């Protein structure tokens, strides 16, 4: 670490938050984005932020517009995913597929691989697919098709080390639009910073497990986003 920092610079040893917009620029209908999740990580908020504010334009890829499909793969969900992919490929929608219990969708993954290949050749240029899954506990359980992984942009988001890095990362996740949500700007920004600091403290404690706590609760990025919305509502009313 010291050698790399001395010869190449500190930016090569400091943990930074991934720029999802750059990954989007490299993706295509034939190149999905594959999120390899760490415990407590959830890419949904990052993807929603990108969808709403990419290059400062509202692209309209939201659930309300019916152009963003968020599906957790599992029992009896394969057909739902297949229908969403077919619709998305035709009408330039975005699809996010969560693969939580991989052993339940072993057969469906092969079908999914074939569909991704099919729609990569005959779909709208704005069609995008993102997939998220946690690493399997043993090598034998790594059953995600090799072709799916080879054709994807792989992204892993691990918990950063240290309060400062984590605090910078979580503050970076809020864009200017979020900071201007509330008319009571001073109070909103102050309490928002406190929520981010609280989130950072809990993220740093994850390595200790439930020690000293009643249970292991990560206070994920999605929880933080909900709290910010509640904060804005409270201050406005």
Automatic annotation (TrEMBL):
Domain called Dynein heavy chain region D6 P-loop: residue spans: 29-156
Domain Dynein heavy chain AAA lid: start-end pairs: 188-236
Gene Ontology CC annotation, any one: dynein complex
GO molecular function, one term: dynein intermediate chain binding
Pfam families noted in UniProt: AAA_lid_11, Dynein_heavy
GO terms for biological process, alphabetical: microtubule-based movement
Entry protein name: Dynein heavy chain 11, axonemal
Encoding gene (name): DNAH11_0
